[in-house]
C-alpha cells in the first residue's frame, strides 16, 4: 500500500471521527479470522461493504494479472 493510500484512509477516518481497525487473515482452506476494534458498532455494515469491495477488487486484479492456475500447474513441469 502506498503512502497516498494510507493518507486517504486516515483523512476519511478522521473526517468521521472513527478510531476503528481490522486485521483480516485468510487461509487456502477458505477460513478467515477477523480481529477488529470498533468504537461505534454502527460502522459494522459499512465495514462489511468495504470488505466486500476490497475482495472483489482484489479478485478482479488477480484475474487480470495472474495466469490461470491450470496453466501454472501445466507449466510447472515443462517450463
Count the helices. How many?
A: 3
Structural class comes to: alpha+beta
**Unreliable stretches:** none
Helix content: 55-70%
Rounded Rg: 17 Å
Strand content: 15-25%
Kindly give the count of domains. 1
Major sheet: size, sense and barrel closure?
2 strands, antiparallel
**Arithmetic mean pLDDT:** 78
Helix-strand sequence: HEEHH
Please count the beta strands (DSSP E, at least 2 residues each).
2
How many angstroms separate the termini?
A: 32 Å
Neighbour order of strands in the largest sheet: 1-2
Shape: globular
Features:
79 residues; single chain; two-stranded antiparallel ribbon; 3 helices; alpha+beta
Structure description:
With 79 residues, this protein is α+β, with helices and mostly antiparallel strands. The chain has one domain (3-78). It has 3 helices and 2 strands; from the N terminus they run H-E-E-H-H. The protein has helices at residues 3-16, 44-65, 69-78; strands spanning 21-26, 32-37. It has a two-stranded antiparallel ribbon. It starts with a helix and ends with a helix.
Amino acid at each position: 500500500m502506498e503512502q497516498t493510500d494510507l493518507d486517504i484512509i486516515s483523512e476519511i477516518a478522521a473526517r468521521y471521527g472513527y478510531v476503528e481497525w481490522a486485521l483480516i487473515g485468510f487461509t487456502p482452506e477458505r477460513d478467515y479470522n477477523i480481529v477488529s476494534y470498533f468504537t461505534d458498532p454502527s460502522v459494522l455494515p459499512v465495514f462489511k461493504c468495504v470488505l466486500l469491495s476490497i475482495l472483489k477488487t482484489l479478485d478482479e486484479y488477480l484475474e487480470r494479472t495472474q495466469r490461470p492456475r491450470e496453466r501454472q500447474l501445466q507449466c510447472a513441469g515443462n517450463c
